[in-house]
């Protein structure tokens, strides 16, 4: 039996369903396996066309928004002991059912709730290979493939689809799957309102008519087998004509082309300080804005580099005006601990989604969430018994889905939701667990990358410290540390000019060393070690302090866990305890290696006299 994750403890009373169709049948099947409890509340789930079959139909009709609920929206009305969940169709009903499952035992009194997703496409990408390995996967092997084919038993896939639907995910993408396998997978995800897309590499010449004909025929053949295919995710891409070729072939079927944006930068010479990988995506795609077909979504990484633990928001997300954009995040923790180290990313994602792309902080402000038409992330699941390797990493998957639905949701509240639904525990234990998780991203940042510096990781694994691991590579230079200072000059005045890709007043904020936020200072500026931060500390002392602090915070997390560990089932206790042991060792290596590196370069000791291994 699969780990039930956040569906482990939830229960409902008897529910009547006034609806028909595939997703209504899914709801009925869900209700048959949902744990029951007795209550006087009468619950009904119905389509708006059948709402008059319920006692609360006048209240429901009065609460319907003027422009309707849309395909995925729903409303919940409670008056006394009557409660109705209503939606226009199956997708909204399914999300309304899971809303009910999530909150029913916390509901009290009369209320009316109207829910609609903020972002239309909410997708997880899966880089599983047919062999059963997972690229950028840290939770075992593939749950979909083995030995070149899809697994014969898809019961675990069905359990996964159920988890995704419960948090509002409506799309998934797979790479390298054969058409019959795609059809089998699509059949399972369809039961939960989730569209399947295919990831491809497009390296053909789009100006060759034979290429256009081939893709038109191939896409037609796919839709014959999977008529509700969501689209194509293009991982390795050429130019705008390639995107438009695919988009035109997809258009008759309602399909979308997700064109992953990375920027086709050449190898960088580390000797050239003006060569800057961060510029590449903007430089390539801003001149193309408005030239893409309407069913193309430019899938932009949240930062200008590559999912580092701290980066500025990619300027492309705010500057595309005539092309639909989507943001790409990583639930799989490639550069944030790889599900070995605890790193709850919900606060970081909310910060990104709520980032004001205009910098105006007032009238005319437009957040990232306001601008995008899709939110996509590389999934963190595998065939590990608990889905995510580290049991507590399930919180990242949960938070991604919930923030994709509502980008303004409070990440700490989401932790309480997740913990209460995942574990049978008292409120005090839940509070301790949430405390451990809530600050873990900041803790990870403190003991790894200081002030916006990235890529101080082992090049092959991307786990563990290697301060100069990428510093002389063709991918760029990321810290330029020498005996006098550290950081990358990305200013217009003296550096690569990257700050100029942002609109005013953001460009000026980042350009000025004294107004640039401390947490991004070394991403935008090369400064001497004695430069004083807005916090009042020098850059070098900040590096020392945060690495000591980060390690101490991991020690505190471990101590908190030991106090509550016995309250969890043995499998959870053993899994989390082992991961914390590894994290403590990793944090120690980061602390000692980074601090020693900068002490040896600068010759300046720690102001507090703590041990640095010179």
UniProtKB/TrEMBL annotation:
Keywords: Glycosidase, Hydrolase. Its EC number is 3.2.1.139. It comes from Kribbella aluminosa. The lineage of its organism: Bacteria, Bacillati, Actinomycetota, Actinomycetes, Propionibacteriales. Residues 388-610 form the Glycosyl hydrolase family 67 C-terminal domain. This is Alpha-glucuronidase. InterPro entries: A-glucoronidase_C_sf (IPR037054), GH (IPR017853), Glyco_hydro_67_C (IPR011099), Glyco_hydro_67_cat (IPR011100), Hex-like_dom2 (IPR029018). One of its GO terms (molecular function) is alpha-glucuronidase activity. Gene3D superfamilies: Alpha-glucuronidase, C-terminal domain (3.90.1330.10), Chitobiase/beta-hexosaminidase domain 2-like (3.30.379.10), Glycosidases (3.20.20.80). Pfam families: Glyco_hydro_67C, Glyco_hydro_67M. Residues 112-387 form the Glycosyl hydrolase family 67 catalytic domain. It comes from the Bacteria.
């Amino acid at each position: 039996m699969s780990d039930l994750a956040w569906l482990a403890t939830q229960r409902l009373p008897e529910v009547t369903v006034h609806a028909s169709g595939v997703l209504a049948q899914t709801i009925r099947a869900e209700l048959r396996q949902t744990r029951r409890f007795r209550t006087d509340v009468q619950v009904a789930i119905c389509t708006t066309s059948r709402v008059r079959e319920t006692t609360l139909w006048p209240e429901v009709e009065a609460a319907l928004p003027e422009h309707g609920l849309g395909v995925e929206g729903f409303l919940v009305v409670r008056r006394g002991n009557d409660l109705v969940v209503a939606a226009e169709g199956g997708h909204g009903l399914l999300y309304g059912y899971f809303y009910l499952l999530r909150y029913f035992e916390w509901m009290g009194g009369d209320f009316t709730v109207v829910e609609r997703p903020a972002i239309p496409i909410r997708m997880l990408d899966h880089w599983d290979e047919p062999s059963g390995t997972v690229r950028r996967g840290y939770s075992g092997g593939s749950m979909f493939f083995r030995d070149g084919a899809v697994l014969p038993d898809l019961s675990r896939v069905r359990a996964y689809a159920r988890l995704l639907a419960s948090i509002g995910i409506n799309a998934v993408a797979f790479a390298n799957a054969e058409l019959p396998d795609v059809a089998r997978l699509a059949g399972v995800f369809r039961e939960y309102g989730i569209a399947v897309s295919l990831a491809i590499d497009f390296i053909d010449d789009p100006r060759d008519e034979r290429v256009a004909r081939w893709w038109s025929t191939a896409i037609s053949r796919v839709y014959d087998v999977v008529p509700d295919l969501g689209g194509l995710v293009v991982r390795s891409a050429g130019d705008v004509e390639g995107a438009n070729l695919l988009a035109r072939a997809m258009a008759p079927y309602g399909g979308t082309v997700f064109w992953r944006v990375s920027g086709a930068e050449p190898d960088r010479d580390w000797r050239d300080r003006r060569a800057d990988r961060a510029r590449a995506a903007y430089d390539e795609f801003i001149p193309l804005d408005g030239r893409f077909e309407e069913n193309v979504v430019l899938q932009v990484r949240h930062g200008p580099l590559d999912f580092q633990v701290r980066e500025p928001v990619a300027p492309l997300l705010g500057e595309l005006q005539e092309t639909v954009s989507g943001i790409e995040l990583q639930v799989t923790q490639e550069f944030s601990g790889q599900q070995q180290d605890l790193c709850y990313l919900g606060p970081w994602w909310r910060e990104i989604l709520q980032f004001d792309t205009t910098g105006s902080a007032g009238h005319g402000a437009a957040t990232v969430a306001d601008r995008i038409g899709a939110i996509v992330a590389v999934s963190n699941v595998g065939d590990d018994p608990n889905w995510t390797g580290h049991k507590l990493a399930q919180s990242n998957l949960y938070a991604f889905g919930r923030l994709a639905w509502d980008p303004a949701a409070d990440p700490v509240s989401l932790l309480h939701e997740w913990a209460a639904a995942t574990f049978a525990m008292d409120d005090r234990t839940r509070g301790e667990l949430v405390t451990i998780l809530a600050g873990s991203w900041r803790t990870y940042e403190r003991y790894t990358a200081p002030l916006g510096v990235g890529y101080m990781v082992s090049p092959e694994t991307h786990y563990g410290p290697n301060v100069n691991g990428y510093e002389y590579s063709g991918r760029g230079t990321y810290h330029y540390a020498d005996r006098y200072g550290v950081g990358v000059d990305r200013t217009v005045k003296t550096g690569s000019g990257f700050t100029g890709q942002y609109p005013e007043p953001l460009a000026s904020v980042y350009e000025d060393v004294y107004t640039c936020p401390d947490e991004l200072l070394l991403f935008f500026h090369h400064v001497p070690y004695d430069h004083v931060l807005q916090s009042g500390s020098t850059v070098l002392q900040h590096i020392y302090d945060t690495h000591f602090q980060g390690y101490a915070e991991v020690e505190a997390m471990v101590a908190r866990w030991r106090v509550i560990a016995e309250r969890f089932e043995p499998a959870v206790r053993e899994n989390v305890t082992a991961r914390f042991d590894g994290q403590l060792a990793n944090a120690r290596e980061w602390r000692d290696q980074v601090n020693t590196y900068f002490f040896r370069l600068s010759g300046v000791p720690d102001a507090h006299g703590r041990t640095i291994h010179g």
